[in-house]
Amino acid sequence: MQRREFITLLGGAALWPLAAHAQEPQRTAKSVRIGVLASYRLPPMRRFSQKLKELGYVEGETLRLEYRFAEGYDERYSKLAAELVGLPVDLILTTGTPAALAAKRATTTIPIVMASIGDAVGTGVVSNLAHPGGNITGFSALNVELEGKRLEILKEVMPHLSRVGMLANAANPLFDVSLKNLRPAAAIFGLSLDIFEIRRIDELDAALLKLAQAHPEAVLVAADSVLLNSRRQIVEALARNHLPAIYPFREYSAVGGLLVHGANLSVLFERAADYVDKIFKGAKPGDLPVQQATEFELIINLKAASALGLKIPPGLLSRADEVIE
């Protein structure tokens, strides 16, 4: 081998570790502790952890996640939020309105990132989306705005629809905000709206029984993490009683839900991880705008439609992001 070739080869070999290091995810030097405040461990949370890993936060090494779940009892959030503050954690991630409000009441200094909330301003979590101020920021799934659109989709599938039942968690402050927007929308479409509510997870069976007995022509399932965690029970009960329904999150389609229209929660959780990284690198939560969802999904389950004797209009099918045969 020529001397020049040997030196070139040797120099290249010396650079290999540097090149390999450059391709690895950037790792944070500081070990951080994040508190996760939610109703349950929901599927979209996986995207949050995955994105943090890509950003260099390795669980068990530079990252510790402290989970606190209310498990369908929203009154537990205050105690759980206080536990996280008392540890203390470096940041709190919340999902849903009750969790965000509890975290806000528990601390004015620990940063709070909302992975998903239905309406941050309407529920009083922040006063301004562009400049939330204080120690809280995050992402909105725009659920209040989308409730009317879900009614419109039901009407498109069932043109003669006149009675809709709404399954909702009345303990969630988003419920009252949603109704203020939903009742006028129902009136526009000529629909009567009957509410079937729960306040705790152990009331779900009774609410589903009342819904079956009342048998409205269709059902609107409200955006709520307690209901989302019980998605299989809800979808199966409505199908068993031949009640067409529209749901707010993709996860309902995985268990046989007829229609889904809403924001992609997994995307919001991934974007929340980016905000967490910015905050740990020095950004102030109050300077980060509360961003609204930009990716929405319309999912139609044709198998469920056939079982209900429904024919989905071709125009609606053409707009669907996903059609399940």
For the biggest sheet, the summary is: 7 strands, mixed
CATH fold assignment of the largest domain? Rossmann fold
Number of helices: 12
The main sheet orders its strands as 7-6-8-9-10-12-13
Oligomerization state: single chain
CATH architecture of the largest domain: 3-Layer(aba) Sandwich
Q: Would you report the number of β strands?
A: 13
Strand content: 15-25%
Mean pLDDT: 91
Q: Quick one: CATH class of the largest domain? A: Alpha Beta
The secondary structure category is: alpha/beta
Poorly predicted segments: 1-28
Percent helix? 40-55%
Ends apart, CA distance between termini = 64 Å
Can you give a write-up of this model?
This protein is of the alpha/beta class. The chain has 2 domains: 32-141 and 264-295, Rossmann fold (3-Layer(aba) Sandwich), CATH 3.40.50.2300; 143-263 and 297-324, 3-Layer(aba) Sandwich (Rossmann fold), CATH 3.40.50. 42% of the residues lie in helices and 21% in strands. It is built from 12 helices and 13 strands. It has helices at residues 3-23, 45-54, 77-86, 97-106, 143-157, 174-188, 204-214, 225-229, 231-240, 265-280, 302-307, 314-319, and strands at residues 32-38, 63-69, 91-95, 112-117, 136-140, 163-169, 192-198, 218-221, 245-247, 259-263, 291-292, 296-301, 322-324. The strands form 2 sheets. A 7-stranded mixed beta sheet has the order 7-6-8-9-10-12-13, sandwiched between helices. A 6-stranded parallel beta sheet has the order 2-1-3-4-5-11, with helices on both faces. α6 (174-188) links the parallel β6 (163-169) and β7 (192-198). α2 packs parallel to α10, α3 (77-86) crosses α4 and α5 packs parallel to α6 (174-188). It is elongated. Mean pLDDT is 91; it is low at 1-28.
